[in-house]
Amino acid sequence: MKLIPVGERLLVKLDAVDEKKVGSILVPAKHGELSRAATVLAAGDEVKRFKVGDRIFLGYHSGNVVDIAWEKADTLRIVDEAEIWGFVTEE
Length: 91
Hints:
By secondary structure, this protein is mainly beta.
């Protein structure tokens, strides 16, 4: 199965965040971090700047969580192209 975003949306996979357990609560190791890195998995037909495989940065809570049975919870997000803060190039 494939999930394909539409319009100016992208499907991204967030990089893993180290977590520690405080009692029964999971706390990200970088608590208070403002951004997250991700990789573009699919792009809608109206996306102009990004392509599959691009490494991007976005706000920590940007986009909408996609809950798919074959992926770990909270690793996939659908984000609007405008929510992306920047990307990494090889140059």
